[in-house]
């Protein structure tokens, strides 16, 4: 997936949540959908280049759909995205 495809999918999922078409962001399958997008971004190297870390993702969403970052769901997703990034960045340390 490209960066734009990932951002478009995140926006779509956030819109679905806002329209109450999906369950809680804290439950599957909704949380898994966001994690799948995170994994695609991470595995494509977009975190190393700071293209889609949480702050960069926020800036892209603000530019495309600013109404979504004022939502409480965005706050949860921001924290998930940051936590997942931290965990994957440090995954190699678990065996030390």
Structural descriptors:
96 residues; mainly alpha; 4 helices; 61% helix; globular
H/E series: HHHH
Q: Total number of helical segments?
A: 4
| Domain count | 1
Biggest sheet statistics: none
Which segments are poorly predicted (pLDDT under 50) over 5 or more consecutive residues?
none
Structural class: mainly alpha
Shape: globular
Proportion of residues in extended strands: under 5%
Secondary structure: helix percent: 55-70%
Give the strand tally: 0
Radius of gyration: 13 Å
The first-to-last residue Cα distance is 33 Å
Mean pLDDT: 89
Short description:
The protein is mainly α and 96 residues long. Helix content is 61%, strand content 0%. The chain has one domain (3-91).
Walk me through this protein's architecture:
It is a single chain. By secondary structure, the protein is an all-alpha fold. 61% of the residues lie in helices and 0% in strands. α1 runs antiparallel to α2 and α2 crosses α4.
What is this structure's SSE topology?
Blueprint: H1 3-18, H2 30-43, H3 54-64, H4 72-89
Helix pairs in contact: 1-2, 2-4
């Amino acid at each position: 997936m490209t960066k734009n495809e990932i951002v478009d999918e995140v926006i779509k999922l956030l819109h679905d949540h806002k329209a109450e078409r999906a369950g809680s962001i804290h439950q599957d399958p909704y949380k898994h959908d966001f994690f799948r997008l995170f994994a695609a971004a991470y595995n494509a190297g977009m975190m190393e280049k700071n293209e889609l870390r949480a702050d960069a993702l926020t800036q892209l969403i603000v530019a495309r759909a600013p109404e979504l970052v004022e939502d409480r769901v965005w706050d949860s997703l921001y924290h998930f995205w940051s936590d997942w990034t931290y965990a994957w960045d440090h995954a190699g340390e678990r065996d030390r």
